[in-house]
Every structure is written in C-alpha cells, then in structure tokens.
Amino acid sequence: MAPTKLGAWSPLTEAAVGFALGAVGGSILGATEDPVDKILSVMTSAGPLKPVMEEVRTVGALGLGTLLGATALTTVMTSVVAGVILAAVVASVFVAMRSCGASHTDSAGMWASAALAGAFGTTLSGATLGITIEWIVRAYGMVGLLWVLSIFTMLKPPLHFVFKFLWKQGEACCTLGSTVWDRDRKQMEVTELQHRQRAARQIEQTILTLEKGGSTGGMENKTTWANERRQREEIERRKIESEEAEMEQRTIQDWITTVVIKYVDFLAFSGIPMTVVAIVTSGLGVFGYGGHQSVFIVLLALVVVIAYLLMKSSDFKFWMLIGCMAMLATFVIALLTLHAGQVVVTAAMKMQAAGQSQSTENISARMNYQSSLEALNAAVFVAKLFELGLGATVGGPLVRRAAGEVKVIAGAASVAGGLLVGLEVLGPVLGEGGKAGAMLGVVGAAGVSVGAAAALAGRWSSWLGTLGTIAGLVIGALGVGKWHIVNIGLQLPVAYIFSMTNPF
Question: Between the chain's N and C termini, which has fewer beta carbons within 10 Å?
Fold first, then answer.
C-alpha cells in the first residue's frame, strides 16, 4: 500500500484516519500488559524468587539492583540488535535478488520479509537469553551472572569489529547486482546504438532515393518512421526505469548498511557504562561492603563521572545516549532495591517502639525478600520501557522515510499479535526465563507500531489529525490494557521520545 499523502485530506478525514491508526498501535501496546504482569507474578513467586533472595547477602541490595538492571537491559539491547541485523540481512538479500533485472517492483515484499525476520530474531534472541540467564542464576547465583555479564561486555567491542568485517565481505559477495546492472546497461547501449545505426541507414537510403528522383514510399515510409519513433521512445523509457531501479537499490542498500553499523556500535558500546556500575557495586558487595553507605557514594560518583564523560563528547552518538539512559535506569533500580530494604527496617523500628519486638533474622529475611521483589519488578518494568522505546526508534524513522504509515503500524501490530499467540502456545516449552525474554520481542514489535503512530501524529497538516492520532493511541492502549493508567502513562511518552530520535 502506498504511503499516506499527508495534507491531501480534510482535517476531519485526517482525524478519523489518525484515530484509527493510533488505536491500532495503542491496542497492541495494551495487549502486552496482562502477559507481562502474568510473567512477572510467576517470576516473583516464592520458588523463582528464592535464588535471588539468597544472593542479596552476597552482593548487597545495591549490587543486586545494578546487576539485575544491567542484565535485563543487556538482554533488551542484544535482542533488539539481533532482530535489526536479521532484518537487515533479509532486506539485503531481497535487494540483491531484485537487482537481477532492470524492472522496478513494489517493495512491500521486502518490508514484510524484513519485518517478520526482525520480529523473529528479537523474540528468539530474547527467549534464548532469558533461558540462559535463568539457568546461570539457578546454577551459579549472582556471582556467576556477574562473571558472565562481565565477559560478555568485554567480548562485544572486538566482536563488533569482526562483524563489521564480515558485513563488508557479505556486501562484496552481493556485487552480482552491480554486475547485472552493468550488463543490462551495456545491452541497453548496444540496442540504442543499433537503433541509431538503423535509423541512419534509413535516412541515408531516403536521401539517395530522393537524389535519384525516386519516391520515398508514401504511407509505407510514414509507418516505418512511426515504428522507429516508438522503438526509440521504448528504449528511452527502459533506460530511465533501469537507472531509477539501480538508484533505488543503491539507496536502500546504503541505508541498510548505515542502520547495521549504527546498531552494531550500539550493541558493542552502550552496555559498557551500566555494566561497569554493576561490576563495581556487586564487587564491593562480594567483598563485604554490600550494605555500607560508601557503596551508594561510590555508585553515585561513578554514574556522574561516566555520564559527564559521555555527554561532553564532541561526537555524541546514539549509543552514548542509550548508554547514559541505561546507566541511569540501572542506578534507579538500585535505589529502589535499597529503598525497599530500608522500608522494612523503618517499619521494624516503629513496631519495636510500639512494643512489638522482632528478631534480627526475621527482619533480615523480610529485607532480602522486599529488596529482591523490588529489584525484579523494577528491572522487568525498565526492560519493557527500553524495549518499547528501541522498537519506537525503528518505527518512527520508517514513517519519516515514507515507508508507508499503514504498512508499518498495522504490519508491526499484526506481527506482535501473532507473536503473542505463539508465546501462549510455546510458553510451557520456554519456561519462565525464556517466556520473559521472548515477551520482550513482542513488546519490541509493539513498540515499532506505537513509534510509527507517534511519528505519524506529528506529520499531519492539521491539529485535528495530530489530536486524533494521539487520542487513538491513548484510548486503544488504556482500553485493551484494562486501564493500567500508571504503566501506560509512562510508556507512551517514552515511546514518543524514542520515535522522535533518529539513530541513523
């Protein structure tokens, strides 16, 4: 379907169309609320929460918060980049296949194939990471998770250079497209030359006939010249179409390469700030300083220094922005984790003042429980926000590049809905960790739809179109999401901000 011609409709029509498209994006966002809540309720039940509670004593409340936050956000970033890269590979192959001829066909098949590949890659990557993290925590505890996270973070920068090299090699293998275009261009030039030579011979023959006093052929000659003119026009038309198709192919391939490079940089470097924070605070916890106030001071100083160094960069990049945001989100999760334990202590002091004494073991157990519960709740919610936002960074630019508002919004919503159904069927096989990771892929696909709708809201020529789209987003999200006002009220602004961000 062709992109919507914004500004070609009346304000009321824009409002109606915007409301409908906004409602589609909002509805799929609302549809993710209940599945996420169900997964979270299972993860925070007594059995799955027990291994996390036992590790609070090892790494401390702040260490637990930063470690769970960094792990959740690393899962989000990795799954998103895996989806983007797989989508880019499919799109590149599709472009290379299209280049085998000079004719230009509609690009709907390419976008649909890339979207399905991206959603599948994100979901599969999230499920794999979720299962892996669950196994590591059960088998080796938070210390094992800390080691794995540290090793993975250190491996990403060198792997990023390896991947860039492999991508360039892959592009070199696709030079068949350029060869085909060169061959078609040469064939076109030969055909054009032959036509000119034939026309020149006919003109020369006509001149010689006239010099000898003969007849030029009358109607037969006119028919010949008309055929020659039609052939010349056909050659020119095919030449223009070939040039346009070649230019489109090169433009799309250049854009795909730009996207891949930006997202590979994002994966390689954006997780470093939050991982450094998690390593420092968890390390201090392992050495017995988990509950000391100095850990909070070190954590705050570390966050401020890293944020300052990144923000002052003269060449500020997308991965720096997301790196700062992820680090600050990790810091917030750590504060919430610490605060949950302090609330228990405050309540115990009040009870003791009222004459209701409690044992130290009981208070410590309640502190560990509340800290672990808050750490998991905050980590999952922040991970969902980031997944939604990163999905919106894909949907928003696609709409601004005129990929087709209806295709992006409805297509991403349909893919997310299909993933939701598939997740319900495969849930028992994936386990809780795999289901939680796969659910991030669903949220990412929903984020593409929401981000596209948010970008569309700013592209209408009238305020009625903008307000209609926003109203559709809000009503669709709240209605299908069973009026989770606080959660959705936080997610929609985040999706809008990310949709306005251009990572390319």
Answer: N
DSSP conformation class of 2: P
Task: Report the predicted TM-score, pTM, of the whole model to 2 decimal places.
Answer: 0.82
- For residues 150 and 102, give the distance between their C-alpha atoms in angstroms, rounded to a whole number: 50
Instruction: Tell me the per-residue pLDDT of 15-27, one tens digit each, with 9 for 90 and over.
Output: 899 899 999 999 9
Question: What DSSP string runs through 97-123?
Answer: HHTTSS----THHHHHHHHHHHHHHHH
Q: How far apart are CA 89 and CA 16, in angstroms?
A: 37
Q: 290, 62 in Cβ contact below 8 A?
A: yes
C-alpha to C-alpha distance for 82 and 80, rounded to whole angstroms: 5
Going by C-alpha positions, the residue among 374, 364, 454 that lies closest to residue 409 is: 454
Closest CA to 380 of 454, 307, 432: 432
Please tell me the distance from the alpha carbon of residue 463 to that of residue 366, in angstroms, as a whole number. Answer: 53
| Per-residue DSSP letter, 4 | P
Closest CA to 115 of 149, 74, 76, 86: 86
Return the biggest CA–CA distance within the chain: 131
Q: Which of 444, 498, 386 lies closest to 73, judged by CA? A: 386
Give phi and psi for 27, each to the nearest 5. Answer: -65, -40
Sequence-separated (6 or more) residues with CB below 8 Å from residue 254? none
User: What tens digit of pLDDT does each residue of 331-351 get?
Assistant: 999 888 888 888 887 887 777
CA distances from 321 to 237, 328, 445 (A): 47, 11, 22
Tokens representing 116?
Answer: 């399905």
* Confidence at residue 105, expressed as pLDDT on a 0 to 100 scale: 44
φ, ψ of residue 461 to 5 degrees: the values are: -85, -10
**Nearest partner of 110 among 251, 238, 237, 261, judged by Cα:** 251
Residue 157 vs residue 427, higher pLDDT: 157
- The interaxial angle of helices 360-400 and 318-353, nearest 10 deg, is 150
